[in-house]
Specification:
Shape: elongated
Strand order of the largest sheet: 1-3-2
Structural class: mainly alpha
Amino acid sequence: MTQLDQVVRDIVRVEVEAAEKRILERMSYGTDRTLSFSEACDYLHMSEYTLRRLCREKRIPHRTYGADGSKNPRYLFSTATLDRWIRDQEEANYRT
């Protein structure tokens, strides 16, 4: 295999991966639901403490309902957005 062949294969591989990612994201929008805080804990298999900390630190996508500066805000989550966040976290674990 020549160097040119390898470059072409690498370009094709990157483009196919990007296309697969776009297709999966579009497919997940059809099944998108809004989750409450406790439902999101179950969905993510995460403790309430950990999820609340991630929300406060703005490290996980969510919507907040309640007055600004409230000590007890109501958090809502989108399943499609959480799925994308999980995939991004998994990919980040394997980057060099």
